[in-house]
Amino acid sequence: MNHEPWSDLRDRLIQSAPQPTPEFKHRLLNELKQELDATPTRSRLRLPYRWILAAVLLMIISASGYAVHTFLQLQPDPALQSVYFTGKGIPLDAQQTLNGYTIALQWVYADSGQVVIAWTLQGDQDTIYTNLDSHAKLFDASGIEYPLAVGMGTYAASNLPADLSQLTFIPESITGAVYQFQIPEALLGSDTIEATLQINASYVTAARRTEVPFTPPEGVYDTPDWWVAIPGLFEFTLTIPVEGESAIRSWDGVQIAQDQGLEVRLQQVIVTTAQTRFTLCFSVPDAAYRWTLAPRLSIQGLEVKDAMISVANDDQPDCETLIYQVNLFDQRDPWQFEITEWIGFGTSGADQRRIAGQWRFLIEIP
Amino acid sequence: MPNRIEPERERYLIQHIRDDPRCLEELYEAYLPAVYGYIYSRVNHRQDTEDLTSEVFLKMIRHLDQHRLQHSFAAWLFTIAHHSVIDFYRHAAKSQTVETIPTASVSDPFVEYQDLYQLIAKLPERRQEVITLKFFGGLRNQEIALILKLDERTVASHLSRALEDLYQQLQEG
Asked: Do residues A131 and A144 both lie within one domain?
């Protein structure tokens, strides 16, 4: 196998690392020394008081249900965590073996907005997995696909979210993933989900660990020994009961907001216990850029933070779905939803256009 | 890639930074190039890089007591750097109605590597972060995972794919 191209690239990247000028280096060091002299040493006696303050703050936060809610949002992927911690996942006894590899579905969970499926992969006992790359598709009998929710905790949907992998303590000879799918609009409101799950997977073995730090595969087209693609497609037919009532609140009264000569149309809001989806449409100001909208949602003057993911709408390129992965189902007061910025991505990461403004919607969801 | 200090030595330097100026100098020597390189790769502008790098190290001095010695100092420091870059773009977004984010000028150093930086800038955002933290910041995958709040295996996967993409683009170019 040819090691050279990757080595060259790694070397070039390291060589290209920008370096500070000697003048800047000298100047900043002097500033830091002055800052160090000016910064008082914190006495350890203050530590208990800080803990007391933290405890008081926690009590204040606990006094408000909504504040607790916001506090919890700071945790990665509250939707998945709540599934795990409340033990709502339904254990499954479904497994399939292909070519010496067994995929076992561990637990599933569905509510009015999402389907979560946890599964593990195991080959022979000597295989030590260091990375799993898997792809899954969930679809109903008529072919309607459940979109994969790529967001916090399920980034790229190829690995166990860190928190879950730490909690489940799976041994090294087993790997797995937790997938989170959205329920497509056409299937919202069902009491039961009848669907087919297809999985294909490849993985990296422990042989990779002999090179520390991680180095990439040698050559683009060579498949290294430690990279194993599992032949075959694993397929499961699932019947998953939907947790609780299939409660949905929705709003379809189109509102239009204008600012900076640009128009945003709020088309639809769907609120379930698992998530809230806003569908927005807009006319792009410059077709050379791929545009996304930065939102802010406030209820009773409190901003809902840190739980938002954006999903491009494949059917309507000028529309975007913004999803808050948090339970706002019981928030009955009027909502203020606004777009604070349009962000356009050009061909390079540094090539961005940003348009600040205020496109505000006041909505009451029945 | 910057040389890393042994963890034991690093803990000693942090504990004695106020007693002995050489401790600050040693930490600074070890981390300045890495932090500077990472920030430059994210903002691509020398003056902004110097401003942000100063901000990061000043914050380091002011908040050093918040760092837990048993945890990675590099991950802690680069988390500050990562957030400073995010704040920089937020501020830039507020102060510019319609304007492109600054790109490198010919007066900047490292113009010879602009082609490589441009290729990196074409990568998806997450891969840009991973590759710059890895090669410019000299961080371990575990530390990158902590900063970006990703699974370590996801970091490895992003890194592998980023290098593959870069390699392919260089071959095509």
From this structure: yes
